[in-house]
Amino acid sequence: MQAVKRVTGRMLPLDRADVDTDQIIPKQFLKRIERTGFGPFLFYDWRQAEDFVLNRPEHDGASVLVTGANFGCGSSREHAPWAIRDAGFRAIVAPTYADIFKANCYKTGLLAVTLPDSQVRHLMDLALEDPSAQVTVDLEKQEVRGDGFAYRFEIDAFARENMLGGLDEIGLVERHQSSISTYEAQRSAWLPAVK
Amino acid sequence: MPSTLGQKLWDSHIVRTAPGEPDLLYVDLHLVHEVTSPQAFEGLRLAGRHVRRPDLTLATMDHNVPTRGGARAADDLSRKQMDVLAENCRREGIPLHQIGSRRQGIVHVIGPELGLTQPGMLIVCGDSHTSTHGAFGALAFGIGTSEVELVLATQCLPQTRARDLAVTVEGDLPLGVTAKDVVLGLIGRTGISFGQGHLVEYRGSTMRGLSMEGRMTLCNMSIEWGAKAGMVSPDDTTYAYLERRPHAPRGAAWDLAVDYWRSLATDVDAVFDHEILLDATRLEPHVTWGTNPGQVAPVTGRVPEPLTDTDVRALRYMDLRPGTALADIAIDRVFIGSCTNARLEDLRAASKVIAGKHVHPKVRAMVVPGSATVKRAAEDEGLDAIFKAAGFEWRNAGCSMCLGMNPDILAPGERCASTSNRNFEGRQGAGGRTHLMSPPMAAAAAVTGHLVDVRELL
Fold first, then answer.
1. Residue of A41, B250, B297, B361 with fewest CB within 10 Å of its CB?
2. A194–B144 CB contact, under 8 Å
3. Residue B213 bridge partners (DSSP)
4. Which residues in chain A have Cβ-Cβ distances shorter than 8 Å to B15?
């Protein structure tokens, strides 16, 4: 994973709650065996409507997705954060996320940060009124800031450290080799093995 | 200190714990399928890593497999995913149940039926419905592809401890009401995100009375209200289901295992962070009317007035008007299948409703058994003959129209009575409209041509 400290850019206001991963990346695009190339299919069905926010030229090049509560519910497909990243987004701001989606974002280096409803509402309105408005999502300082505001966010300390350092999580776990072997040695003999 | 089932399962899998860090948990069984694994195996290959415990890893093909015509009927990309899985399993020595093999099936159906899913285990899979396995008193949850890679490489997973939530359901289920209705009724009450960050234990007299199949249906849909995992304390029903399954312990090991499993139950004085109470005796058969599983009502009800933007959009997508009686909604398709409701008991229950009747002339209906094993067992009892005589298509095992990655999809505008788990927009095919319900309810819809209260046919 590449290290990520902060993201500055314009916002895409996706003013919907409970956006599920089937909408983020529909199933017919899950057949790729790579981690890249999903961007063109982000919100594929919703994009068929001309006035869908992602089609509006004033939001071209936005890198911060601002959206409603329970974002990313449903399927565990990591293709969802891959598609969001591949389409040029580097951060998401929402009141809440589905657990698996949030974990997947952290592994992908996509800054999924949580702010209270009222602050997300402010960002949403700002993006609608002034699509050129810039915000910074700062992982080091744990704040989302823009012209005249700075909102503090909380984030899992371990995930934050991994993203800031661009750490290889597998490598981190492998450091605990001896603890893993010790645990394995005391597992009950009746536990099943597939071969 | 008194502890819950969920916390006992958590504690017994801690490899390492340190302040300010997630717990490192050991995975007893890692289930793998063709769609969420290719990038994980590729990551291993690029880093020169290998699978640590192929003996604790099992692969199957389920998400994109055609349900008739075999692998040749798959599109090129699907076939490529299947080939890549077979090659990855061969290289890493992972057992694979591929399309056409005797034990192939939906990953969450085959784990239990092989006896690989046992109480006390930690089970993960790159699939959100992994919570199904919690029915055995296991800690089971879905993970993303990066986590799949991590588990393949280390057999471990760093996890931040989840909170405890009890759902206590009391009383006997009325005639025509199933585990599916319990969970749909629950989600209708709590909404689709209430469970976030929680290990849910389903308890109470209703749970004790439910079969393993019913418990699996309930635990399966835990993710549909956002829960990290769903589980039921193991009991004699669990042990009776498990005993003599291919991978269940035998002889003295069985006795030792059962002694341990009995110790997993939540202690009397244990405290949950939240508790939800549900009266099973007042439940009715449920159907969804919207585009998420929380947009649901008893079949005796009507399409509600929209309360939110999400409701407004859902009604537009579903082409429904507020006030319409749910039982007046005509359907085009019926799908009996999925990891939620495609086990033998589900097929038996549906077959009872349709025996001697015929699928409505305007409806196309199909049954997709959850596994090749379920299919054979159903055929041994003659269930296939009942379905076929009634006009149902009888297919091979797979995820099929639950998510429509294979050729089984709805056409735009088609309306489906489905025993699956998600009614999201386009889930069963772009523009398709899904109403979730139990197998008997879907069977009843098939013969009447509209959503209907199955109790009228019993």
1. B361
2. no
3. none
4. 176, 179-180, 183
User: Rounded to an integer, what distance in angstroms lies between the CA atom of residue B122 and that of residue B404?
Assistant: 29
Report the pLDDT value the prediction gives residue B71, as an integer from 0 to 100: 87
pLDDT of residue B385: 98
CB B401 within 8 A of CB B419: no
Q: Sheet with B163-170: list strands edge to edge.
A: B229-231, B198-203, B163-170, B274-279
- Distance CA(A65)–CA(A44), nearest Å, equals 16
Q: Is the Cβ pair A78, B146 closer than 8 Å?
A: yes
Flag residues of chain B having pLDDT under 50: none
Tell me chain B's radius of gyration from C-alpha atoms. 21
Residues of A in contact with B398 (CB under 8 A): none
Q: Would you state the pLDDT for residue A20?
A: 98
One-letter amino acid identity for A76?
A: S
Structure confidence by residue, pLDDT tens digits, A147-159:
999 999 999 999 9
Q: H or E element: which one contains A162?
A: helix A157-165
B4 min Cα distance to partner chain A (Å): 21
Q: What is the pLDDT of residues A19-49, one digit of tens each?
A: 999 999 999 999 999 999 999 999 999 999 9
Q: Closest residue of B to A183, CA-based?
A: B15
CB contact under 8 A, A183 and B15: yes
- Residues, chain B: 458
Rounded Cα distance between B380 and B263, Å, is 38
**Is A195's pLDDT higher than 90?**
no
Which residues of chain B neighbour A77 with C-beta distances below 8 Å?
35-36, 144
Cα separation of B422 and B207, whole Å? Answer: 23
Q: Which of A34, A190, A194 sits opposite B256 (nearest CB)?
A: A190
pLDDT range class, residue A2, cuts 50, 70, 90? confident
**ipTM score assigned to the predicted complex:** 0.97
Alpha carbon separation from A184 to A188, B15, B25, B151, B362 (Å, rounded): 9, 9, 11, 14, 57
- Nearest-CB residue to B26 (from A20, A158, A183): A183
> Does residue A135 have a pLDDT over 90?
yes
Contact call for residues B92 and B204 (beta carbons, < 8 A)? no
CB nearest B150 (choices: A96, A100, A170) = A170
Between CA B179 and CA B171 the distance in angstroms is 13
The percent of chain B in helix, strand and coil, each rounded to the nearest 5, is 40, 20, 45
Q: Which of B29, B80, B248 sits opposite A33 (nearest CB)?
A: B80
Q: Give the chain A residue nearest B150 (alpha carbons).
A: A170
Question: Whole-angstrom Cα distance, residue A31 to residue B421?
Answer: 21
**Of B345, B355, B362, residue with least CA distance to B450:** B362
